[in-house]
Amino acid sequence: MPGYELIGEEEKREIMDVLDTGVLFRYEFLDQRRGVFKVRQFEERFAAYCGAGHAQAVTSGTAALKVALSALGIGPGDEVITQGFTFVATWEAILEVGAEPVFTEVDETLNMDPADLRRKITARTKCIVPVHMLGAQARIAEIMAIADEHGLPVLEDTAQATGARIGGRHLGTFGRCGTFSFDPVKTLTTGEGGMIITNDESLWRAMSEYHDHGHDHQVNPGGRGGEGRRFIGSNYRMMELQGAIGLAQLAKVDGMIAAQKGHKNRLREAAMAIPGVGFRQLVDEAGDSATHFAFFLRDREHCQRVNEVLRQEGAGAINFSENTWHYYARWEHLLGGKTLASSGYPFFEPGGRRRLLYDPQALPQTAALLQRTLVYPVSIRMSEEKLAQMCRALQLAAKA
Asked: Among the CATH numbers 2.40.37.20, 3.90.226.10, 3.30.70.1450, 3.90.1150.10, which is that of 254-399?
């Protein structure tokens, strides 16, 4: 991670195909574009790569979540369960469609704890959004079983785990749909951009229409502007330049993952020298995308001592209990009910009645786990010098 490390001649060639036509928009201009439809081709190849029936490209991973939730019919009055260790986009999208995020604990997979998921389901629950954090799998089989018991759709947030699998089956294909991010620090990057995959044709059609102002994309004699609309939508269209980059990057993904796995294995071997160290539980080690290396220390104090040694050696790791983007207890804007809306929505109803209130102490299991966890992002082109420095720092940390 990330794919920008491998941007090269392949991406340039795909981009020049677009620039030679002068058409940056993914629809229409049939004569001018001379058969070049990069976004459509990217969708088709990404769906085939994942083993999904359909794919819908959008402007970001955040947009992918919102479009998918909207197509699933999620809205005001609904609760959507996700996890307390994720990027803020997961619950921002839930709030944007008018629904209420409910957060579960994570377990030693660093993903949704199925036992806590079962406790959090209510009569108002309308969707479950497990997140395959840091490139590795949630316990999706257990989550799907619980969802099926309650007749609930599962939307897999696969933003950080492109190419990851369980038993050879791609993440994102277990639930009703799966969303992906292609932002600058993802394994496959288009600068910005996202994708939704599904095997449900009717759901895909709803997403296709919603992401383009509700346009039905039917052939009509008037060209663009003559489409019908079944419902209102918005604009989350990917542009042709992004699709072009995505095509070139997609061809490199498996090689990226192989490189990351090699680097991660080196780091793991070095970390084994630390007394009391433990490692993140992987549902399927062979299917790990290896974008991150996560390891557990005995307790918070041990974790701090180890990371201090790592920092002194120029190889400090991430402690997500200190991170403001990915950890529930650090989301001060969510916990504080901060919004630009004069009414206070979505945290307050018009008139001042409190609608949503989140307790910073609500996820003690997650807090205890993240406080003793250190994480390294794993790059694709990690130099031997840098890798050796990190391994040496981990071995020195054994004395912490």
From this structure: 3.90.1150.10
